[in-house]
Amino acid sequence: MDQAIVVEQLVKRYGDFPAVDGITFAVPHGTIFGLLGRNGAGKTTTLECCIGLGKPTSGSVRVLGLDPTRARDLARMRPRIGVQLQATSLPEKANVREVLVLYAAYYGIAPRAAEMAERVGLGDKLDRQIAQMSGGEQQRLALALALQHDPDVLFLDEPTAGMDAFGRRILWNEVERLRDAGKSIVLTTHYIEEAERLSDRICVIQRGKIVAEAPPAELVARYGGDATVSIVADGFAPGESLDGLGTWTLAGAKWTLATRGEPGLALAAIVTHANEIGATITSLDMHRPTLEDAFIAITGETIGEAE
Ligand SMILES: Nc1ncnc2c1ncn2[C@@H]1O[C@H](COP(=O)(O)OP(=O)(O)OP(=O)(O)O)[C@@H](O)[C@H]1O
Ligand SMILES: [Mg+2]
């Protein structure tokens, strides 16, 4: 079987409300699949159906060929998946080492507390009580707990929400290392930068539906729009030597070229032309389309709190 996870026509209703409204995707082994969407898009609900925490209203989920709605399959699945939930409640009184030992016992494996703590940057905090750890530290511990039994498939729900740049980098590096070791990872996030950096494929979810799915670069190429080069220069007007680069517009004193081509080359040609006609440049600006541009074009919305 070449797919670690297969989700087909998944629907999850709460009463009449379709939190997940017919989602289909597949995650190949050894890849990172990013579910990107705003608050309430249906990311957590999708994940819950994948790990057997919620029963689909209709549609199907297979994780490593197993059906999480069947108790026997779920029991076989559990030791092979690792889950970092959006909100993990850890025993407040216990310390880091004790929690890792407890989880090892649950999975029936030898604890690797020191090694796991080290991997998530908590090597010096083994004796720290949970109650005395920051939110970001607790999340990194939650990742260690999801990893200790060496699962083949990982589900990470907003793993870096609220983390500082340091914690985020530790987690990103660890997730990439896991993928390179052949693990399959589903990651939900509303951080565009995180989705772009980590995902082999991104699936954009909006109101319970998939509105686009592709590798990040492809989403940008398909939906991100034109690159632009803007110039403000006394005495400037686009001339014949710039024909064919794209479409020019003038707003106030600023000329803007929208181009499908390489904006760096366009910029160089524009500077050469400005010099040839003796125009004095006061400002020059280049913008390549980003995943954020693509996201806005796809959903008609900005991502909200990630801004
Ligand atoms: N148990 C529930 N009962 C009723 N509605 C629910 C329940 N759980 C989730 N919902 C609704 O389903 C929708 C999707 O929720 P979900 O938690 O999957 O979103 P999400 O994409 O994970 O959002 P976030 O980024 O805020 O975590 C939301 O509108 C939410 O209010
Ligand atoms: Mg969520």
Describe, in short, the structure shown.
The protein is built from ten helices and 13 strands. Helix content is 33%, strand content 29%.
Set down the secondary structure blueprint.
Blueprint: E1 3-14, E2 17-28, E3 32-36, H1 43-50, E4 58-63, H2 71-77, E5 81-84, H3 96-107, H4 113-119, H5 135-147, E6 153-157, H6 165-180, E7 184-189, H7 192-198, E8 201-206, E9 209-214, H8 216-223, E10 227-234, E11 247-251, E12 254-259, H9 263-276, E13 280-287, H10 291-299
Parallel strand pairs: 3-7, 3-8, 5-6, 6-7
Antiparallel strand pairs: 1-2, 1-4, 8-9, 10-12, 10-13, 11-12
Helix pairs in contact: 3-4, 8-10
The chain binds adenosine-5'-triphosphate and magnesium ion (MG).
Write a structural description:
This protein starts with a strand and ends in an 8-residue tail after the last helix. The mean pLDDT is 93. The strands form three sheets. It has a six-stranded mixed beta sheet with strand order 5-6-7-3-8-9, with helices on both faces. It has a four-stranded antiparallel beta sheet with strand order 11-12-10-13, with helices on one face. A hairpin with a 2-residue loop joins strand 8 and strand 9 (209-214). With 307 residues, the protein is an alpha/beta fold. The protein is built from ten helices and 13 strands. The chain has two domains: 3-221, Rossmann fold (3-Layer(aba) Sandwich), CATH 3.40.50.300; 226-288, 2-Layer Sandwich (Alpha-Beta Plaits), CATH 3.30.70. Helices cover 33% and strands 29% of the residues. The longest helix is centred in the middle third of the chain and has 16 residues, at 165-180. Helix 8 (216-223) crosses helix 10 (291-299). The chain has helices at residues 43-50, 71-77, 96-107, 113-119, 135-147, 165-180, 192-198, 216-223, 263-276, 291-299, and strands at 3-14, 17-28, 32-36, 58-63, 81-84, 153-157, 184-189, 201-206, 209-214, 227-234, 247-251, 254-259, 280-287. It binds adenosine-5'-triphosphate (ATP) and magnesium ion. Residues 14, 17, 19, 37, 39-45, 86, 190 line the site of adenosine-5'-triphosphate.
